[in-house]
Structures are given as C-alpha cells and as structure tokens.
Amino acid sequence: MTTLHFAEGLRELVGGVDVVLSDIWGVVHNGLESFPEACEALHTYRSRGGTVILITNAPRPADSVQRQLRKLGVADETYDAIVSSGDLTRLYVADHPGRKMFWLGPERDNSIYRGLDAVTAPLEEADYIVCTGLYDDETETAEDYRGMMLKARERKLTLVCANPDIVVERGDRLIYCAGAIAELYRELGGEVIFYGKPHRPIYERAMALAGERQGHQIDRKKVLAIGDSVRTDLTGAREFGIDCLFVTRGIHSEEFEGLDQLDPTSVMELFGHPPMALMRELKW
Predict the structure, then answer these.
(1) pLDDT score recorded for residue 3
(2) Is residue 81 assigned to a domain?
(3) Rounded to an integer, what distance in angstroms lies between the CA atom of residue 130 and that of residue 128?
(4) Tell me, what's the pLDDT at 181?
(5) Which structural domain range is residue 261 located in?
(6) Is the pTM of this model over 0.70?
(7) Residue 6's pLDDT band (cuts 50, 70, 90)
(8) pLDDT over 90 for what percent of the chain?
(9) Which of 52, 89, 232, 275 is at 20 to 30 A from 243, Cα to Cα?
(10) Are 201 and 161 in contact (CB under 8 A)?
(11) Are residues 152 and 211 in the same domain?
(12) Which among 84, 75, 80 has a CA at the least distance from the CA of 29?
C-alpha cells in the first residue's frame, strides 16, 4: 500500500471499531490548550458505545495526567481511562525496593516515585537511573547530558526511560523529552529500559483496561490507535497489530504543510509502513 486516505472525520473510520487508543499530547492538546474538536470527537465516539483509552508517554501517573487534562479543559467524559508510561515506571520502582535510584528530570515529575519506598541517591551511589526528562527542557538538549551519561555507562547503570518521546509540542515549539537522553545513552553503549509507546507493555495495559470496560477480551482488529508520531504512535500500533489514524498537525506538521495527497515515494520516506488514514486535526 503506497497511497493514503485523508479522512474527513473520525466518523468515517470507527464502523466496527470497539476501542480507540488515543495519544494525548499533539492530539487532544498541545501542552498549553486543548483541542475542542478532538475532545468532541472522542466524546461522541464514546456516546455511541465505543471505549476510549488515552495512552501517553507522560512520565507521571494517570491521576496526575488527569489533573493536567482538567486544567486544560478536557472533560472526564472524553475518555474511559488513562494509561501512562509513568504508571509503568512506578511499577518498576516498586519492584526494586531498597535499590538506590538516581532520578533525572524536572521537579514537576516527582510523582514518578511519590508514595513509593524509593531511595534516591547521587549518580555516583545509585543502582539505576530513572529519567523523566531534562532538568530544563526550555533551554537544554540531550547533548548537555553527554558527560553524565558517560559516567553512568562507566558504572554500567540501567537507565529506565519514563518517556520514550524524543520531542513534544509545547504551544508552537518542540521541546526535548526523556527519550532524547535515553537514545544518547543507548548510543554510548548504556542499557535502557523503555516504558511507553512504541513498546508493548503500555498497549497490553490499555487493552486490559478496555476489556474491563467492554466486559470481554478485545479483538485487535476492532481497535484503532490515534497519534501524531511516526516513531512512537505509528510504530507502536503497527508492531502491536492494530490500525492507526495519523494526525498530521502534531510534531510532523512542517512535513505535511500544504499536502492533501502523497506520492508513493513520499509515503515511504515519511512512514515506511503507512497508517490506515491521515487527518490534519482529530474531529468527528
């Protein structure tokens, strides 16, 4: 398949779809404001019997993500549940009691270990690293952490990445995320454990929650993923065996500017394996 379908709205794609697994950042909001039409689309789908699970690479637990959504005006009725990479990372921390953790990330992400029996320590004394992001993502890049990562590699520390995203939108800007540091560490020969898209555990957790809501095991042929990242959303959906609607207004917006159709060469360059459909902004 080398041609792409540009859908007018979600309504065209959800016939026979029982579950939508929707990205948040770039689809539902941009970090500063929510997208009303996207929220309406998901709410309408739910009102017609569908289940919406929000899956996000946010390095915070689901209740923290929900508080942010409420502040941005995203109603609870927009979705059934949230699964975050932060939740999965917290499970890792909980499963390693007594081991010393070096936490790398901004203060706003301290919920990653709040309430857990976690022992934090300097890099020189730590048993492993949990990375939720850059200390200052407004001014820093992963390169600012090369020296730190070289020291970590010398000590053969495992880095647990709580957000595999490389970049994310904040308003009209792109800022670096934990995934950028994790990829640098991996390039330097360090061991990395990734939680979140495109890795399987977050999809398995989302499907389990959807099955609880529906009251039966979910057929993957009846699941639609929605996202704006080739690297995380599209790749994750493809490897998990579910269809994907790709929203072009997100982190790849410049590459799609002014396009209403793509030739086969462009499809391969942008996607490799293309999504089932494209939409500039999610709407019903």
Answers:
(1) 61
(2) no
(3) 7
(4) 97
(5) 10-57+198-279
(6) yes
(7) confident
(8) 73
(9) 89
(10) no
(11) no
(12) 75
